Structures are given as structure tokens and as C-alpha cells.
UniProtKB/TrEMBL annotation:
Domain STAS: from-to ranges: 32-84
Organism: Micromonospora haikouensis
Pfam families: STAS_2 (PF13466)
UniProt-recorded name of the protein: STAS domain-containing protein
InterPro entries: MlaB-like_STAS, STAS_dom, STAS_dom_sf
């Protein structure tokens, strides 16, 4: 079903269509700059992107995620970010609301262990 893929749907959506989440690779530091929103509609793609960038980056080099361009992150996606921390992912540019959400999720995940 090609029309379900955002790249296939974009032409039908008109010239002003933009994806909810955009990821830009950064070289120095190695990682991603994320812009937009992470929610149920793109959570799986976000997790796959995060897994790919952590696998492709040398083990001793941290992966830096610049979150300053995110306007929304749902709870499950925040949990994905928290779980990425032990794999050498460093989060930068967190807005206060996102930082608080990450703290709450981190605490909730610690309670589960």
C-alpha cells in the first residue's frame, strides 16, 4: 500500500505538506537534530531512526540528539529517549516541559525495575 508512506502521500497533500517529524544528521557531534513532533503516528519510525543512528555511531562516541526543535513528544516516545540513555545517547536542547516529562518517565521506568 504505497499511499500509506509519507513520501508517496506528499504529492497528494499539496505543496504546503510537511512531515510531523524531521530528522537532520549532524556530523560534529555525531547525532541528529530533531524538529517537529513525535507521537503515535511516527513513534515506530522514530524508534527505528534512533536505533539506526546508535548502531552506526562508533561505540566510544556518544550520539547527541538535539531536541530543541521538538514541539511535542508523547509519553511512549519519551520512554524511548530515556531507554536510549544507557546506550550512549546524550540529549541536548530539552525545553523545560520535555525535560520534566523525561524526569517523570525516567522515575517511572526506575520503579518498574
Amino acid at each position: 500500500m504505497m499511499s500509506a508512506h509519507p513520501a508517496a502521500a506528499a504529492p497528494a497533500c499539496g505543496p504546503r505538506w510537511t512531515p510531523l517529524l524531521r530528522a537532520h544528521r549532524t556530523a560534529d557531534p555525531a547525532g541528529l537534530r530533531l524538529v517537529g513532533q513525535v507521537d503515535r503516528s511516527n513513534r515506530d519510525a522514530f524508534a527505528a531512526l534512533l536505533a539506526a543512528v546508535t548502531e552506526e555511531t562508533p561505540a566510544r562516541q556518544p550520539v547527541v540528539l538535539d531536541l530543541s526543535g521538538l514541539s511535542f513528544v508523547d509519553v511512549r516516545s519519551a520512554a524511548t529517549l530515556v531507554r536510549a540513555g544507557p546506550r550512549g545517547v546524550r540529549l541536548v536542547g530539552c525545553r523545560p516541559g520535555l525535560a520534566r516529562l523525561l524526569e517523570l518517565v525516567r522515575g517511572g521506568l526506575a520503579d518498574e525495575d
